[in-house]
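Schema walk-through. Below, the input block comes first and the output block second. Nothing else is stored per chain. Lengths vary across the set, and this one has 239 residues.
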Amino acid sequence: MNVQLFIPCFVDQLYPEIGMHTARLLEMAGCTVSYNANQTCCGQPAYNAGFLQDARKVSEKFIADFAGTDYIVAPSGSCVGYVRGSFEEMFNNTSCHNDARQITKRIYDLSEFLIDVLKKDDFGATLNGVATYHDACGALRECGIKAGPRQLLSKVKGLELREMKECETCCGFGGTFAVKYEPISIGMAQTKVNSALETGADYMISTDISCLMHMDAYIRKAGIPLRVMHLAEVLASGN
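--- output ---
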């Protein structure tokens, strides 16, 4: 199975190891992975900020960069949710409409691609400790991702998964929201982290590094003994 790898901005610029883990997991599952080095942003930041013309230009490039019929897989429910939820309407009655519609059917978050398409949930990973899972807004609300990551984590040897009360509550990042409404954003991160701590977790895991980055900043500032990990990083542990 041929897969085009889409690496979102946060991963590319700040956490490239997550991209490497994603490629490795796909290859372990038997996929032939390709990476277009010309790829850039999907357009979500501009779209969310209200700059629709700018978003359309960036998204047009995304469509061109990922032309073809291969599956597109990204370690980010947020970016996948944007493409699925916005492209068809954004390019309605344009020359890109058919290509935009097709790309929304080919793009998957890593967790749902492994579970729903490849039907594979065990990568022989090992991580000792207690973990809790954060349902990122994009993954949960835009992609409907809920059970898949938990199924994947249940196969990790040595890992005990405990649900926190605020598992579906927003962490407070929200892109520019964290900048424009900093006090509210910090308060939301505090609520989320406290909920995780109540479970006795050593790790907080999610599909979206942007959420984890935001909460990790609060964790480090407060000196809290809690480690954040992307799902791809966990699944690659011990291999």
